[in-house]
Design brief:
alpha/beta; three-stranded parallel sheet; 24% strand; single chain
Length: 74
Amino acid sequence: MAGLSVVIPTLEEASRLPLLLADLQRWPGELEVIISDGGSRDKTREVGRLAGATVLDSPKGGRGPQLRWGVGHS
């Protein structure tokens, strides 16, 4: 089975991110989780790191630029 990369664009998602990350940990194969953050001021980055995700600070906000930044690092 080939590995899977999941890019998650975030902004102020600390309260919702743990459930998503817990669900992703159930993936049976190789999984790379990348959080591409758009400038959160809450604990989004810390939540991601604690779950083992790669956390990137996107130079541009917005879903599209954040997804491109994350895919470029996958």
